[in-house]
Write a structure and sequence with these properties.
The structure holds 2 protein chains of 2 kinds. By secondary structure, chain A is an alpha+beta fold. In chain A, 22% of the residues lie in helices and 39% in strands. Chain A contains 10 helices and 20 strands. In chain A, the strands form 3 sheets. A 7-stranded antiparallel beta sheet of chain A has the order 4-3-2-1-5-6-7. Chain A has a 6-stranded mixed beta sheet with strand order 11-10-9-12-19-18, with no helix packed on it. A 5-stranded mixed beta barrel of chain A has the order 8-13-14-16-20. Chain A is globular and about 70 Å long. The mean pLDDT of chain A is 97. Chain B folds into 2 domains: 2-212, PmbA/TldD superfamily (PmbA/TldD fold); 220-451, no CATH class. Chain B is 20% helix and 40% strand. Chain B is globular, with a radius of gyration of 23 Å. The relative contact order of chain B is 0.14. The chains are: A alpha+beta, B alpha+beta. Chains A and B meet through strand 2, strand 3, helix 2, strand 4 and strand 7 of A and strand 2, strand 3, helix 2, helix 3 and strand 7 of B.
Chain lengths: 427, 455
Amino acid sequence: MIVNQLIDKAMKKAQGAQASLGKSEATNVSFENDRLKSIKSSQSTGMSLKVIVDGKIGSSHTTDIEDIDGIVKRALEAAEFGSPAHFEFPGFQKGKDVKVYDAGVESISTDTMVGLSEEMLALVKKYNQDILLNAGAGKNVNNFQFANSAGAEYSSEATNYSVWVDGQLIRGTDILWAGHSIAWKKLEIDHVKIANKAIDLFKMAEVIAPVKSGKMPVIFTPEGLNVLLLALSLGFDGKNVFLGSSPLSDKMGKKIADERFSITDSPLIDYAAGSSIYDGEGVPHQVTPIIENGILKNFLYDLDTAGRAGKKTTGNGVGCDATNLVIKEGATPFRDMVKNIKEGLLVHSVLGLGQGNPVSGEFSVNILLGYKIENGEIVGRVKNVMLAGNTYDALNNIVAIGDKGEWVGGALFTPPIQVGKLSVVAR
Amino acid sequence: MRERIERALRKSEAEYTEIRIETVISSWVNFRGEDLDNIGSSKTVGGIVRALFKGGWGYSIFNDLNDLDKRVKEACSSALLVGKEQSKFAEVETVVDEIKASFGKDFRDISLSEKKSVIEEYNRIILSYSEKIETSAIGYNDTFGKIYYGNSEGTYIEDERPDASVSLLATAREGDNVQRGFESVAGGSGFQIVEGLQEKAEGAAKRAVELLSAPPVNGGKYTVVINPKLAGVFAHEAFGHLSEADFVYENNRMKELMVLGKRMGPDILNIIDDGTMPNLRGTHKYDDEGVKTKKNYLIKDGILAGRLHSRETAAKMGEQPTGNARAIDYQYQPIVRMTNTYIDKGKSKFDDMLRDIKLGLYAVDMVGGQTSMEMFTFSAAYGYMIRDGKIAELVRDVVLTGNVFETLMNIDMVGDTVECPPAGGGCGKDGQSPLPVGFGGPYVRIQNVVVGGRQ
């Protein structure tokens, strides 16, 4: 394998090395403004090398997989001035099996992807002719090789498949956007369900409902939960914890959320978008509980950050990022959640998320797609409304957790969650 | 390369075909806290073939340059499968040109150790500023791109595109209160623009510490004065995206909303997109369809005066191409994008803007923004309350929102000096992010702006 050649060349000067090589083939069909617009095919290659020389790390990357001498030279050069290594490359450890390849994805034809996109368009158009639609489907097949100088070595073949539809409805100067998509590693995606989900979002938005500024309860749909998850994800990132920029850094073992709230990093779910046997450093993936019954249990680490912090890697390399996040289902049917609200909001998507100081937990966002709840019923869409609060306060102030989770994209599984009062500023 | 590209283009069966090949050399140095986080370099080579047939597009993307003919065929057969109508593609002058970058200190000749030592100093300044500084994140990045572009009409361009940037983030902390100060410098320039930033580093640290004792802004409706850096983001989000013709050209209702000649703002409002301004991040001689960039008025004297086009959107709307088809890299087809967007100067002085404000907000510097065409947000790095015509206390978590059909009309004063800071700015659209863009403006006063926050 090429990765072994890279390791051999690098080890003439280095005391440790890690190499990877990826090859990918992809096809995407894309409908824009109600019509088939383009078909895109891509062939891509890339290889990366990380070396440790005299205790210092250097890395390099290239798309030219023939440039073996060049990449080795540049990585060694970088190591001369590199950051001190706080870890050693791990030897081979056998990982747990997880399904990441579906032959059906490899064999699905362009015609089929065009056909199912057309069906989604037709369904949404049948609901409302005036919605201008984009839709499409995409697939890719990745081959990946990995090795390091300590004897870890693996190769993998993975598929990815995605289907999406979104539309825009203009009435007067009112512009409404809604849509739905799924992306994961198997072919099994119900495109009719995706179209119907988009239709539901449009249906609930037929009327614009006025909102007055004030404090009110908010239900986040599974998609809308990203408002809270952004700060939380930055908070349990081991690097932010080690550097002290996470407000959670001194909260290990403490209660930081409602006792019904549990969230897990879960890379071993068959065909989920963030799944694989090993992380990017050859460490076997593991299931890591982050918050269990409201108690902070673990942060996510990669090799170097774990080394610096005196912890063990959780298989979240490189970068301490989550793989798939799973939030535990609660006990309240969504319908009951809505029924119990006299005046409140259902938030599905927002504008401006993360464009303040997200790690602090504060958020202040415009509700892009959200609905007014009045006397237990969803009465219409809200507009020109800002929602503000603090993620950590909100997690401690959970009123109800939905009894049924859903996949968002392909790497987050969560039920809807209702939190107590948040600040709303309307025009 | 020219011969290879032209030979491959001759294999095309489509009505129009282009090949864009990019080589990019880049290097980076990042500090997080006391430690160097990573240092390295990369070399990328890749390309895209784009073919048009009966209104349908085929794209083929590749890293391996050895079989260009095959990629051309692949793009053509995709286009043939898609195309069922009539192609519309604006005529432009064919050009043959070779652009050599002149950008001062060539960062390719500077060693990684020197790059490291320059930003290491900034990192030291931040970390030693105060005991309250918890950590830092300092990033240096340079890229030297070379584009080889050829199309079936005979245009051939070689274009060198340098870009250098530094970002300086200071994080201060007291208990659970974590605040940040941020500065960045970026441009199509040489190494000189990342040197001499000691004051900016200190400024970032100072701001982070000061924000620890600043309260979050109270949500509500305010008269807002924005500074030039934030005015640029405002122009970009509040209006720039709506002027991108690909949102309009096949959308009859949007066409009605965006008829040229329609009043969008007061007489004092002028918004311009200009891809020719020296050394800004959005500047190039040609866009990624080989069309010359130029200065385009989007709003002139408050009236919708123009929009940004690709060759396709221009032809479909019967307007002229503007040189705004851009791609972030070889993995993407060009789409309609902004270059450098700014609000033009007016006649007001900053102090006059404040004078009659009883309770208002002065919002300073940008963090970012987002738009859904109609509604938009833009975030300030920090702000000050304005009380009885004077700048008062510092406030944090300042996020402003607006509605394009109302907020522009609420602009009532425009400052008399335009600044286009060489700050790092990246724009995202249709999965292509971050595209380097420039922005700027004068001080601008806006009435009745909704500011998010707790009450």
